[in-house]
Specification:
Number of helices: 4
Length: 88
């Protein structure tokens, strides 16, 4: 009998995996948002590459917590964008 992966892990590890998945997803959203507002094409591509990397990290962690709800930390995303637009 094969148990789902999250049932074989301790509750602390499941919580850690869920937090890591949320962090990676939020970081990917930050990079994606920044890339949409970037005019320099090489920097834009670097941000898009970072966003893809964060997406793959998110998918890794999500495998351990497939039933956990996902919420992007919008405050972090928009605050980072505001800093980028304000400070350059």
């Amino acid at each position: 009998m094969n148990l789902p992966l999250q049932e074989t892990l301790s509750p602390d590890l499941v919580r850690l995996a869920a937090k890591s998945a949320r962090d990676e997803y939020t970081d990917g959203a930050v990079y994606q948002m920044l890339s949409r507002h970037e005019k320099n094409q090489s920097f834009k591509k670097a941000l898009q590459d970072l966003a893809r990397g964060e997406q793959s990290h998110y998918e890794f962690w999500k495998a351990y917590t497939p039933d956990s709800p996902l919420k992007v930390n919008r405050l972090k995303v928009y605050f980072t964008l505001l800093l980028r637009l304000t400070l350059g």
